[in-house]
Amino acid sequence: MSLLGRRPIRASHAYLWFDGSWSLLHAVSFTLLLVYQVQTADLTPLQLVLVGTVMEATCFLAEVPTGIVADLYSRRLSMLIGAVVVGVGIGVQGVFPAFVPILIGNVIWAIGYTFLSGAGEAWISDEVEPDGVQPVFTRAEQINLGVGVGGTLLAGALGLLDLRLPMIIAGCSYIALALIMAPLMPETGFTPTPRNERESFRHLRRLMVEGLTAARRRGVVRSFLIIALLTGISSEVFDRLWTAHLLQTFRLPSLAGVNEAALWFTAFALAGRLIALISSLAANRFAAERINARHPAGVMALLILIQLAGVIGFAVSGSLWLALGAMWLRTAAQTVAAPIRSAWLARNVSSTSRATTLSFANQADAIGQVIGGPPLGALATRTSIPVALIVSAILFGPAAVVSARLRPNVDERRRPVTRQQS
User: Fold this and answer.
1) For residue range 1-17, what is the model confidence (pLDDT) as tens digits?
2) Domain covering 200-417 in this structure, CATH number
3) TM segments (predicted)?
């Protein structure tokens, strides 16, 4: 008998409900998380960065052991475990506003996240016919964009009452989501992953060896791995300290007698989402030829320089609105650059090693965050946040040079150019 007397529903519907709910709760949890850590928990810049660094390191280390559940036992079970563990991690942070509990909560959250990482896509791919998977993913993305806005607004409303509420309510809701979805999610297409394809420490070692081998070769792959490492080294300090910088440097304007940080940072988050969307649409509308070029080296270098300008402008600006404009400029450049980078790398890697190379590029970014986060966080504590931000921009600078010098691989240069019939 199913839990609560319920029976499984269609897998596609279950996936949309689970994924949409997850996106809603993610927005509720994280919209005001940094405001809470600065204002309520009173974390220092170093502590703020250490929380993010430990989270990244935990995700990296826990990926293999938690992946064993999805590989051997059940992808559905892995998703449900992930929701419960993530809920506990978020709840711990909201209940105990201090550095050590927040650090522990982030470790728990990261472990929960790795239970879910990849399991949802693998589960629905097993349950739905191959031709029916893409429409489900597309519909899920559309739903996620909508509920993300709703979650941001809900976080703002709760935060006006108490900055702890978004995390406490979201933490309980993640656990409730697992309990509600447990009897509704079917799993009829799962078969244990063959031993040679399982996520294991041997698999991780092979991934590292293959990635390092690719990194030693000349060409696009090595350049992109260098860029990913530099991105990780420089980005962690901005991602963790931008909220603290705004709160410590500027006086938030009063609106009808209200100057609550929860209200303004909710507005900032919504504006960031809107700017990212407009930037992506505008780039594809007015610069499609450039961003879709086979080797857009100049475009990539320019987007990196724009990000550098955004970080420096954010750090040195004496005006709140100029600082926000610089931050949103960085956001726009990141949004446009991400798909260009992924497509360019994919074009220059053989299909047999594409997944491994793309995965290693992501790991290089995570490693960079672990390497760069603590020293820059310590620098921000000993000097100031703007100094650390400027140093992070300088460290990212060589990425523009690497991008500008990118050249096609030998086999790409020899490939004949095909002209479309007009």
Assistant:
1) 344 456 788 888 898 99
2) 1.20.1250.20
3) 14-36, 48-70, 77-96, 167-185, 224-242, 262-287, 299-324, 385-406
